[in-house]
Amino acid sequence: MKNILILSGSPRKGGNSDLLCDQFMAGAREAGHTVEKIWIHGQKIAPCLGCMHCQSHAGACVQNDGMADILQKMIAADVLVLASPVYFYSVSAQIKALIDRTVARYTEIKNKSMYYIITAADTDLSHMQRTIECFRGFAYCLDGSEEKGVVYGVGAWGKGDIKALPSMGQAFDMGKNV
Fold first, then answer.
1. The dihedral sign for the CA sequence 73, 75, 80, 84
2. Which of 78, 3, 5, 76 is closest to 33 using CA atoms?
3. Is 7 helix (H, G, I), strand (E, B) or coil?
4. What is the enclosing helix (H) or strand (E) of 129?
5. What is the pLDDT of residues 103-161, one digit of tens each?
6. Coil/strand/helix, residue 150
7. Cα–Cα distance, 63 to 100 (Å, whole number)
């Protein structure tokens, strides 16, 4: 049994990437794993100030928000799932702020199986690579991280469009096969 943390970067609760997170979670729970999903937009996470206070104060950030608890959960997890809609061929501001704020303790986020979920109106997978590379760049900084899978929820513009697409089943199966 694995401890899975899903970080949903959709600004819309119940948005397309958030729905895929729910599918991944359902599959993982069916397989017996412990799963927690954090809807990032519902948390208070300020952007990194770049002050580097954390580097000289044992990972303590000068900002008092929800990031310290999330970082602890990221460190404790066996599996990290990063999810985002594709906004102008990159990740959402919500997931980017979270990634940047891991600077306080990113060296403690080790040996993670990494899964990525993205959604976009565009259907050309080659256009999605910039977004995936953002996630891969983050994972590259985490000792021992290993990419295990990607769900491309393409062809979904409006909220809920994803429900009619094959990526719903793909997200469920990926979660079930962690």
1. positive
2. 3
3. strand
4. helix 129-140
5. 999 999 999 999 999 999 999 999 999 999 999 999 999 999 999 999 999 999 999 99
6. strand
7. 13
